[in-house]
Amino acid sequence: MTVLTLGLDRARTEVRTFFRAGDTVLFTFAFPVIMLLVFSTAFSELPDFGEAPDGSVVDAATYYLPGMIASGVLLIGVQSLAVDIAGERADGTMKRLASTPLPVASWFLGKIGQVLVTGALQLVLLLAVAALAFGVDLPTDPGTWARFAGIWLLGLATTSLLGVALSRLPRSGRSATAVIVPITVVLQFVSGVYLPFSQLPGWLQSVASAFPLRWLAQGARSVFLPPEFAAAEPSGSWDLPSVVLWLGVWLVVGLVVTLVTFRWIRQDD
Questions:
Q1: pLDDT band for position 45 (50/70/90)?
Q2: Cys bridge to 257: 13, 61, 165, 187, which one at CB 3.0-4.6 A?
Q3: How many whole angstroms separate alpha carbon 220 and alpha carbon 74?
């Protein structure tokens, strides 16, 4: 069997395993959907967040949708993979895989396939809830959707590699959640997911700008919010070249760290 065939077969296994873990599904797959429901409902009575050129209002659901999409990519890519792989090292799954003919490349393809499938399902669910439950007007221009697809896929690839790289941090499967989850929670609060990025202190904006979630959230806002909202960004524009640049930089960082540090079994086991 070829590396690709084995990778696709491994991806099917990874997807089935993911959806069998109820707590993982809740806190990575469903969490952004739940948060969108919470924010959209809690702030539904507040004044509108802005107005589009056609006179339509930007309500809470429309405003928070881009942030929840970016958050979902982070959770599916970084949190889910890092915790999952750390757990597999701890329970002996990785050791058993090391004794099989499964190529490392096929294993990587399986993990990336799982992230792609679960991320796509999560995205569809988020868009469906926003449009059907809260009446959010989604883009109709094919070019806008093409731009979003590029940003989303780049973000998914970047966070996936970072998730594999970060899986080396936990010393055990028990500590994986305690080590990884605080990282993703802090990044969500300082990257414009839950709080407007422009309202954060300047020094905190600078810190957050060194991490990919801030740029992924900005890229998503450029798709789902009216052009006038770009004025609220630090640069006064959507600055899409910087979005691509920073996501690309972190993709390379994740790839290099993964290639250098990946081992089926921890050397200190």
A1: confident
A2: 165
A3: 13
Contacts of 138 (CB under 8 A, 6+ apart): 127, 130, 131, 224
- pLDDT single digits (tens) 61-107: 999 999 999 999 999 999 989 999 988 888 888 888 888 888 888 99
Q: How far apart are the first and last CA of the chain?
A: 31
Extents of the domains making up the chain = 3-261
- Alpha-carbon distance 74 to 31, whole Å? 11
Tokens 């093409």 sit on residue: 146
Interatomic CA distance for residues 5 and 110, integer angstroms: 10
CA 211 to chain centre: 12
8-state DSSP, 140: -
Pairwise CA distance, residues 257 & 98, whole Å: 20
Give yes or no for a contact between 190 and 208, defined as CB atoms under 8 angstroms apart. yes
Cα separations in angstroms, 233 against 22, 165, 168, 218: 37, 30, 35, 8
On whether the CB atoms of residues 163 and 80 are closer than 8 A, the answer is yes
| 33 secondary structure, DSSP code | H
List the alpha helices (DSSP H) in the chain.
3-20, 22-24, 31-42, 60-74, 80-90, 93-98, 104-128, 134, 142-166, 173-190, 202-208, 212-224, 240-261
| Chain segment 146-188, per-residue pLDDT in tens | 999 999 999 999 999 999 999 888 877 778 888 999 999 999 9
